[in-house]
Structures are given as structure tokens and as C-alpha cells.
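cron nightly-structures :: item 1 of 1
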Amino acid sequence: MKSNVRISKLTFAIALVLCFGALGLFVSHWHARQAEIRELAVKESILRGELEQLSAWGKWTIDYVKISRALDYLSKGRLSEDQREMLTEQLWQISRSYVTDPLLILAVVAQESRGNPNARGRKQSGAYSGALGLMQIKLETAKKMGEP
């Protein structure tokens, strides 16, 4: 069976205008959404940067607390609160400057002086070796390392 459907020119023109109108609405809506998407992408980038900064601060804070607690444990009460805070700050700065785990630095302190800031190194003979302090550094070495 053959079907003959005829559409008048007016009906066709109206359908064509409606299709183009719908297409125009879609394109204008799409453009408006693109501007919103670009704005959200900028906000996302800013938030990612802030998240990275907060993450770094969180790690630094954890490292600081680790150092403070480890110093407290190692010193067995031989450090005053002020001394412990000063050492914590210095070790924290050193670990950040040299990108070194602060607990590695404290492991050296534990091995060399057992956390005693007044430790003096001795040779096997019992004579003083000249090494001083938490990391048992000799004065000559400290002077050379401190030269510009």
C-alpha cells in the first residue's frame, strides 16, 4: 500500500522555523553553560592549589610534632621546655631545608649522644675526642661547615 502524505508549504515553513528556533535555544544555552564551566575550572584550579598548600602544612605540622615528641623522649627531661622548642624548630627547619626526614636526624642524635645536649665524646681510651653536643660534632668541623 502506498501512502501519500502531503505537507503544505506553510506547515513545512513552521516546522523549519521551530527546528531552527530549538537549535538556537540549544546553542545559546550551551554557550552560557560553557562560560559557567570555564569559571568552575578556574575555581577548581584555585582550590587544588589551596589543597596542596594545606597538605604541605599538614605534613610540616606532623613532622614538627614528631620532632618535639622524639626530643622529649630522647632527652629524658634533660631539656627545658624552651630548649626543646628551640631544638624542635631548628631540626624542623633543617629537615625542610635539606628535604630530609626529621626522624633520620633524630636517629643520628639518638646514636651519637642519646639525646644528651651536654654529651662529650670519648675515645676508646677514655680521653675526650673533642666531639660535643647532640650530634657529636667537633668544633673544627663546625667552624669549617659554618664558613661562607
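cron nightly-structures :: done
DSSP finds four helices and three strands in the chain.
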